[in-house]
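Subject: for your reference before the review

Hello V.,

The reviewers asked for a structural picture of the protein, and I figured it would be easier to keep everything in one thread rather than splitting it across files. Below is the amino acid sequence we used in the manuscript, unchanged from the supplementary table.
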Amino acid sequence: MRSRVRLLTLATTAVATGLLLTGCSSTPAEELEDWWSSGGEGRIKALSDTSGRVNEVSMRPMDIWDTACQELLAEVAKAKKSDTLPSENARGFWTEALTAFEHGGNECVAGAGKKDEAQASAGIREVQKGISRLAAAVSVIKSDLEAK
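And here is what came back from the structure prediction:
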């Protein structure tokens, strides 16, 4: 009887240890929901707002383009430091958006700094491509969240 109790105790301890080591697993939908509610939605809104501002100021004098583009670059840096987007379906669009925002923002800042309207405008066009990629990422994320 003692050996059965001892074996049961050892088995229970092994299972409990295994659970502690592996942790609780969550589904991709749960991971996405956690990402969304723990800052993902805010990061997307900030990128949307600042990229929209870059698009908006492109219709104004070039001397204000630099500031808007620098604000976008700051948001891109924050987004890159955040957790990886857990939606495999949306990750490509997200990465393309961040790349376009970063490249376009840098071109915009460099062009505006040199008073080179062609370079700054090319940067803004790249940011506009990023806006469409961000919209695609959001669409896929929302679809993934609704499928849960």
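For the response letter, the relevant points are probably these. The chain has a mean pLDDT of 85. The longest helix spans residues 117-147.

Happy to draft the paragraph if you're swamped.

O.
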